[in-house]
Amino acid sequence: MRKLNDRYRLIIYNDTTFQSVWSMKLTRLKVFTVTSLLSAIIVILVILLIATTGLREYIPGYPKAEYRQMLVLTALKVDSLENELYKRDQFFKGIQAIVSGEVPEDNLVIDTSSFSNQIEFETFNHDSVFQDKLLAEQINLMPGGKSNRHLSLSQIHFFVPVKGVITNKFKSTTDHFGIDLVSEPNARISAIMDGTVIFSGWTIETGYAIYVQHNADLVSVYKHNSELLKNEGDRVKAGEAIAIIGNTGELSTGPHLHFELWHNGAAIDPEQYIDF
């Protein structure tokens, strides 16, 4: 301990003239402290360099970017498989209960013993109650005095889902049953006609997708969205915002809208009926 505080002098001489050029007083404790601090700083800088750059992928055992992406996709698929297996098990349990004469667990049993047997009914004029609603529906379904159900597709006015550039056209031979539209970031996607949302959710391949059932046996499909603004069962109007353009799903190659149009269960080319 006494030697740690002993003073030393570091002197640099000119080899020719033996003149003192530079000198510094040192102690063993000071040398040990400075060396430790420099070593700690170097170690911290090396750790930050590895952690914040691509050098971390060269660490033995560290997974590559594609491996991490595969792990995430695998976890999503496993989660979907677990949900499907649970639904299958519940379905089989319900079938077994029905076959054995029992009531399935998920059935709702209502106890009607507390209901009164004496129920009074009041008559009212149905026409006066529903007249406005029926007239409104008839107006919506009868542009120009005819119902959409009896119009050909060429007579129907479609609202453009999103303004953009078509990067991939309809090709049924390659199973590309729609068109790809590239638009501005966070652009809103609109319904092409009045209709009802029949699906609004997430799928692994198409990301956030929404399906809308219209009159005239038409179904419009909007895929790879970043956000959905409507739920299943919601009524939508032509031009109403239903989603935000995005880049979700395994089949997406960049921010865009994959738009499909189905008529009588068959995919049709949207460019033949909508001016994009």
From TrEMBL:
Gene3D superfamilies: Glucose Permease (Domain IIA)
Pfam families: Peptidase_M23
Keywords carried by this UniProt record: Membrane, Signal, Transmembrane, Transmembrane helix
Signal peptide region: none
Keyword Membrane: yes
Transmembrane regions: 31-51
GO molecular function: metalloendopeptidase activity
Domain (M23ase beta-sheet core) ranges: 175-270
PANTHER family: L-ALA--D-GLU ENDOPEPTIDASE, PEPTIDASE-RELATED
Protein name (database record): Peptidase family M23
